[in-house]
Amino acid sequence: MGLEAEWITFDCFGTLIDWDSGIRSFFRTLPGVQGEAIDLLLTDWEELQFSLINGPYLKYRNVMHLSLQQTMAKYGVVLSAATLNEFVESLPAWQPFPDVHPTLRRLQECGFKLGIISNIDEDLLERTIKTLAIRLDLVMTAERCRAYKPSVRPFESALEQMGCTPSSVAHVAFGDRYDLGPARQCGMQTVYVNRQGKTASVRPDLEVASLAELPALIRRPRIGN
């Protein structure tokens, strides 16, 4: 069963951009990080990041600095300021998943308005969007509304900018604790991109294994009879 929507918004990193591969690639450049240590490091880093974004607002580049610095300090590794900056600067070079370009083009051809709601700084997202090679109708960042998902504020700010009813939006994301809950709380329809076969903690309106499924499952509302 599909959805009906005028707008389709996306989480960016992990949904459109291969976040996991990008982080792992950078972690392999760090001193003493090999093999299974990357899995442990990634888990620790994600939890520290989640804690930081739920605290007082900091720009995302500062969140990246602090989360990596504190994670490595747990293992007795002190990172230089240059290495911390390299982590931030690596982010805009992380690549989209293979299904992203054709799916976004197809959705745009079908007449959907497309947007991104992302936990990131304006300049970093601007550089990332260039890799998507698509015109977006909405871009909402944590920096713009000074709040990070899972706060509802990014979604409320996006809805205000879109000027539409929440139910006319389908929000697409892989992160259930960051996106699906607050998007649903704001009245949006939700689509869970389950690339890894995991059960979401929040029940979505639609679940897909690939973005390539979206054009067949989301349709625009019919006007008139």
What does this 3D model show about the protein?
The protein is an alpha/beta fold. The protein starts with a strand and ends in a 6-residue tail after the last strand. The protein has helices spanning 19-27, 37-53, 60-73, 81-90, 100-109, 122-129, 142-145, 153-162, 176-185, 214-217, and strands at 3-4, 7-10, 113-118, 138-141, 169-173, 189-193, 206-208, 218-219. The mean pLDDT is 94. The strands form 2 sheets. A 6-stranded parallel sheet has the order 4-3-2-5-6-7, sandwiched between helices. The protein has a two-stranded parallel sheet with strand order 1-8. α3 (60-73) packs across α4.
Give me the secondary-structure topology.
Layout: E1 3-4, E2 7-10, H1 19-27, H2 37-53, H3 60-73, H4 81-90, H5 100-109, E3 113-118, H6 122-129, E4 138-141, H7 142-145, H8 153-162, E5 169-173, H9 176-185, E6 189-193, E7 206-208, H10 214-217, E8 218-219
Parallel strand pairs: 1-8, 2-3, 2-5, 3-4, 5-6, 6-7
Helix pairs in contact: 2-3, 3-4
